[in-house]
Amino acid sequence: MDGYRALIAAGATAVCCLVCAIWAFRSPSSPSPKKQQSAPPCCCGCASCGCASCGCRDNTTAASANGEMAIGGDINKAPTPAPATTGASMMEQLVPEITTHALSYLDCTSLCHLSMTNSAMRRAANDDGAWKALYHKDFTVEQGNITPPNGWKAYYAATKAIINVNTEFYNIIREGSLPAMSHFWLNADYVKCINASGEFFTGYNAVMNSWALLFNWGQDGGQGTDFQLRDVRARVLADVAWVNMKVHVDVEPRPLHATNVYEFRNGRWYMVHHHSSVMADPAPHNLFG
User: CA 156, CA 25: separation in Å to the nearest integer?
Assistant: First the structure.
């Protein structure tokens, strides 16, 4: 009897040792409760709840390294974002007429800046149709039927330059500067000046004397002369250009018609002809109409 009891005790001890060994062998592979709490459990198991405990608001904890994210407890591939469309490709995909119309809202400086961004923008900003539309917007549509030999961009630049020179002419009159006026005119015997009074002067010396008298009259009389230019129209042909406009002078009862002719010499524009005349009164109403 004692031997039988000893045998049973030894078997029980062996079974207990075997169970402890198995438990000790499997326990490292199963996560401890403390380790499982390193990532807070989601409140609802979805990736779109927006709760702060699981970080689903920005999908940072749900996204894996290979672009997968948990949605409703399942692992699904994240949608591939559409490739970003660059400005160049957008411009290239537009119909040329639409591109020209869109660029017509820009000014000269903006078009020049646009041409320096990339090759696609350069092609678009240098488009002849865009510069033609800009010319008609800033200057006049009277020359829509011409074909500039160097393109509309070069023609726009030449027209803008001559209009700036023409504005300088009236700034010199405002200042009453005879040295500036003598430098502004071409020193030639064929230059001519016709004032609003109807006086006619031909030759460089005679023209300069007429301006000297005008400036002295303004200083002696204590009257400054101011101008407002309206309906300015310019035309450039190679080395000759002319500008027509209406000039509103504060010392004249009626506005003036003015025509200025310029000649390109030695890298700059010189005035060679100035003609101004008082505008006629508007036609009276037809009493019998």
Answer: 88
Q: What is the pLDDT of residues 64-94, one digit of tens each?
A: 334 334 344 444 555 565 555 554 456 556 6
- Minimal CA–CA distance to 237: which of 135, 158, 163? 158
Yes or no: say if 208 and 236 are a contact pair by the CB < 8 Å rule. Answer: no
pLDDT in tens, 218-265: 554 334 567 788 889 999 998 999 999 998 877 667 788 999 999 999
Is the Cα torsion angle 250, 252, 257, 258 positive or negative in sign? Answer: negative
pTM of the predicted model as reported, rounded to 2 decimal places: 0.60
Q: Which residue has the tokens 């500036």?
A: 180
Phi and psi dihedrals of 202, rounded to 5?
A: -130, 145
Q: Is the dihedral of CA 245, 246, 250, 251 positive or negative?
A: positive
Q: What one-character DSSP code corresponds to residue 280? A: P
